[in-house]
Amino acid sequence: MIVGTTSLKLDADLIAFHQLYGDHDGESLAAMVLQLLDRARITAGVCPQFSTIYLPTSDISLKVGHFTLDNASNNQTMMEALERQLNKRDIPFDAKDCRIMCYAHISNLSSGHVIRAAGDGEGASEYNPIGRACGVVRAIRVSGKCQEAFDEVV
Questions:
Q1: Distance from CA of residue 19 to its chain's centroid?
Q2: Which of 58, 96, 60, 62 is nearest to 77 (CA)?
Q3: Which of 20, 72, 74, 100 has the highest CB neighbour number within 10 Å of its CB?
Q4: In a domain, 14, yes or no
Q5: Phi first, then psi: what are they for 99, rounded to 5°?
């Protein structure tokens, strides 16, 4: 928050892209996230055993906000394992509070259920809006010329 105003400012940083070899279970994911937090020195100023400068433990909430994750079960176990690991370091972390479900993923799953319930578009009647929309997309993708014409109209 900008001091002296009622405006909020979005502040986000990308810590790393990291390939995880081996198992992608919750414990392995949590260990990697914790390693990346340590490497970025995010946990360093929070707990006295990891830093010469001690900040109150509540300050980690200023450094680590929330994790946006899909609904995979290993993400839930990862957050729980991360909570345990951080709590062992006397760093408070609430796995439920710090997890945000990915809106795009939920929307994709929901729309997929709607499309499957309405039919897959194959042999769809003229009264099936999903089938008709699929037919329009197929017609546009038939050739580069059709795609160019569509782009001009748009």
A1: 16
A2: 96
A3: 74
A4: no
A5: -105, 130
What beta strand segments (E) does the chain contain?
67-69, 99-101
Residue 9 domain-assigned (yes or no): no
State which amino acid sits at residue 97: D
Return the C-alpha torsion angle 140, 144, 149, 154, nearest 10.
Answer: 70
**Tokens 């009264």 appear where?**
127
pLDDT digits (tens, 9 = 90+) for 34-44: 998 888 888 86
Contacts 24+ apart (CB under 8 A), 67-74: 67/98, 67/99, 67/100, 68/100, 68/101, 68/102, 69/99, 69/100, 69/101, 69/102, 70/101, 70/102, 70/105, 71/101, 71/102, 71/105, 71/106, 71/109, 73/26, 74/24, 74/25, 74/26, 74/29
The residue ranges of the chain whose pLDDT is under 50 are: 1, 47-58, 123-124
The residues, ordered by sequence, that sit 6+ positions from 31 with a Cβ below 8 Å of its Cβ are 81, 85
Task: Identify the three-state secondary structure at position 25.
Answer: coil
Domain around 51: 26-101
